[in-house]
Amino acid sequence: MVLAELIAIKERELAARKPVVITCCLAAGCLSSAGQAVKEALDQAVKTASLDAEVEVRGVGCMRLCCEGPLVFIDPPGTLYQQVKPEDAASLVGTVRGGTTHVARGEPNHPFFARQMSIVLENSGFMDPERIEAYIARDGYLAVRNVLREMTPAEVVSEITRSGLRGRGGAGYPTGLKWSTVAKTSSAKKYVICNADEGDPGAFMDRSVLESDPHRVLEGMIIAAYAVGADQGYIYVRAEYPLAISRLQTAIRQAKQLGLLGSGVFESPFNFNLDIRIGAGAFVCGEETALMASVEGRRGQPRPRPPFPAESGLFGQPTLINNVETFACVPPILRRGAEWFAAIGTERSKGTKVFALAGKVKHTGLIEVPMGMTLREIVQDMGGGVPDGGQIKAVQTGGPSGGCIPAAHLDTPVDYESLGRLGSIMGSGGMIVMDQQDNMVDVARFFMEFCKDESCGKCVPCRAGTVQMHALLCRLLARQATARDLAKLEELCDLVRNTSLCGLGITAPNPVLSTLRFFRQEYLDLLAPEPWKPATPPAPLPGLG
Amino acid sequence: MSNVAVSPPASKSRAPLAHPSGDKRFKMLEVFIKRQQQRHDALIEVLHKAQELFGFLDTDLLLFVAHGLRLPPSRVYGVATFYHFFKLKPQGAHTCVVCMGTACYVKGAQQVVEALEQAAHIRAGETTPDGRFSLMTARCIGACGIAPAVVYDAAVAARQTPASAVERVKGWLDHGPR
Fold this sequence. Notes:
The complex is a heterodimer. Chain A has helices at 3-15, 28-31, 35-48, 89-94, 111-114, 132-137, 142-150, 153-163, 175-184, 205-212, 214-228, 242-257, 288-295, 324-336, 338-342, 375-382, 416-421, 440-454, 460-477, 483-499, 503-507, 510-518, 520-526; strands at residues 20-25, 55-60, 72-75, 79-81, 191-196, 232-237, 273-278, 319-323, 352-359, 365-370, 392-397, 403-406, 430-435. Chain A is of the alpha/beta class.
């Protein structure tokens, strides 16, 4: 593969575009509402109307508004149709010839779409994720070619550093710094790992990126491998995402065929092999040292750091681990320059962030917004607020490691620091809206149950602490807890946070701490009146008297 | 293809891991293990394949994998029990997985589970005694936009209610003649 061939593929692909393109969402949300049947019905309808020469039906990645799926977009005239059923196909195809249809139209100018800014998702919803040519037609793999031919690895690292990109997996560690640490090590063998073990309940950003634009993640990984000097990469994906796995397998096969992966990428001396490792359902494997243990085929248990993976990671070699979305940000940064990326967002949080908006909100789905947008703009303007006139009570970010931000703080800009100050985290990007009917103590119990089940059992504070905290929360909800129990809960939060081995345990108390901070009255309302004499003794805490 | 030759092939340099049961699936698994060149880091891959072939991992199968990859059985058992995805018991003929992710939870997944538990007379995570129906919960299936979601035999259904879920599984429950 050389540049001329890449351009030839792009031109061939653009020339083959038919006058009318009907795009049909085939990402997970729409597929579960019969999206595949809609696509097939549309194919059939185009054939029946003998419009083959004029109309292309294209299955594409996520079109964002999951709650109204299956979605179909006809361009021209640029109309979005919602909740399409297979039997609507004929009338939809008929509109190409000036016919009418009763299918509900979406509003492409609604803030939900209009306020988005697409960098990571720029191809999502426009191209067929199973064809590498479609990705190349949208300037895909151009960044790799330019990097391999015109830049030294050090220049690539410096470009990423200047862009201000920070890890999108949750903690927000500067990506450039991580890359330069791995690049500086002198080992002959290095690895690059893509963390696609999206375990947070209520988050589906990585899944959407992998299903909608797998080649972009591959391209980001190739660039990263070149920058740090690695020749082997792994993508660690959850087994729960079979569609993402199959699309990644397709993408890797296609990239190998075109000489974009394997030995001599773009006919340069640089070699890079990429394999998929399928997870087996363990939340803790999102933690980088646990993930590496799992890639090595062992129990996914974390180990103390240092040594950090950048020095001694997979198979004892220096390893670069980044999240799916981080890798997906890399190709546009190198294509359009670090300054362009750094101009977006806030002073310390650059670029855009993809969020999965869900819960008690009218428009659920995938959004990508510049960092620094306020929570109110996201959940009220874009999300449309709570359906049926309810009131927003809180917004949960960061999953089981994050916290609940009360309605009073909705004007907080969404960036790493601001969310951290409120006791929550950016996390991987799940955003769950809760209304007045949701009991915050129950929400805290829900997350604690999650952490209790997912604790790997290696360190005592997390293994035993989560069990005790869960039992205390259950006791509270059963109205059997005293003020002493509440004090014990707070003490345990502090202990588990400060003494656990890995991120799972350190952040496990966050949902409790943040709800205690903003919704303390709800905890107090659940306390049993003191002195409390139980008719039947309260359920004993496991392991304690 | 109906008759499977049980007799081991003529002696080659290394005898294949013939399983005394003659079950053809062991042969397929063995080929898969060989393709991994007995790399220990392929253990999870091999267990995925084994579960795909057999549906669940019983002790015999785990021993077979341990032998094939030259790993101690304790290591194989440790890995198989660590990950939620691996099942050590047979699953029901039909499965129903209720997503208990945050979005589904705040939209009432708990009530869906309770309704299903009552209808099937089993707890989540169990299989009915007749082996026809398994009820499970998932951490998050990533279909938060259409919460609450339930997976019936690999088909995801959107916006479920306790009533719609019970209606959907009624045919799988043993309430009448088989």
